[in-house]
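B., you asked whether I could sanity-check this one before it goes into the benchmark set. Here's the sequence:
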Amino acid sequence: ISEMGFLQALMKYDKNNIPPVVVQKVAVLTAKDDFQPDRVERVSRAAWGLCMWVRAMETYDRVAKVVAPKEASLTAAKAKLAAVDAKLNEKREALNQVVDELKELNSRLSNLRCEQDD
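And here's what the prediction gave me:
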C-alpha cells in the first residue's frame, strides 16, 4: 500500500475491462468473513480503504454487465429513432408544401368567385 504510485494505479485502473479470472478470484475473497469492511477496519484503516475499493470494483463489474446490453439497445433505439425522425421531417415538409399549395388554390378560387360575382 505504501508503494509510490499505488494510489494512482488504483485511480487509473481500467474498471471497464476487468478480466473474468480476476472477478472470480475477487468473488472468492469478498465472500470471506475476514474481508468484510467492518472487520478489516478494526485492523487497518488503509486495508479498509483497499477492501472498499475491491468491493466497489466487484460491484461495478456486476452492474456493468447488466447495463452494457441495455446501453447497446439504447444506442440502437436512438439510431432507429433518428431515422424515423428524419422520415417524419421529410413528410412534414411535404405536407407543408401541399398545405401551401392548397392555400394558394383556395385563394385563387376565392378571387375567381369574387370576379364571377362582380
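One thing to flag: Helices lie at 6-11, 20-30, 37-43, 45-117. Otherwise nothing jumped out at me.
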